[in-house]
Amino acid sequence: MVQYTLVQSPEVILTVPGKDSVKAREKAMDQLIELMDAGELPTELSDGFAPQQFIEVKEPIVNPSPDEDAVTQAVQILSNLATLKLKLQDSRAEALQVHAEIDILFSDEPVSEEEIASLKDGFKALKAYAQANLRFKEARKQAAEARGVLDRALNTADPEPKVSKKSEH
Fold first, then answer.
1. Which segments show compositional bias classed as Basic and acidic residues (predicted)?
2. Which of 88, 10, 6, 84 is nearest to 51 (CA)?
3. What is the spatial distance between Cα 28 and Cα 136, in angstroms, rounded to a whole number?
């Protein structure tokens, strides 16, 4: 929705669907003509009026408060934690299997090129899991703080009054 007003009558607001465009201004012009025909326009437009003369009314930009910013950041941190947790769970089984296979490198038993190649391929999964695990642990620390921010924000809301059930004698 786009809103327009007139320099001559800033109290008059004409609202049309869409964005500011020639077509939207023409629709606003139609509304203006209807107001004039109905005698509801408090201003005379004796010099005429063109759609280009409309002034677009924009909503004031409201900057979020520091508390709102903190809540937004807290939610993003918790969302990141959730993503990391899923990533960690998905890669865990393969990484643990590769980790168990590393023992062949420390034994005196001969190994085949296929075993080594398979192990090397598994190193990528092991590395990804280990890095995700480290990121998850760090994110969990941050998330604990973020949870506190959300808890405080939720507790500041007006709680619903609790109805106490007293027995009447």
1. 159-169
2. 6
3. 54
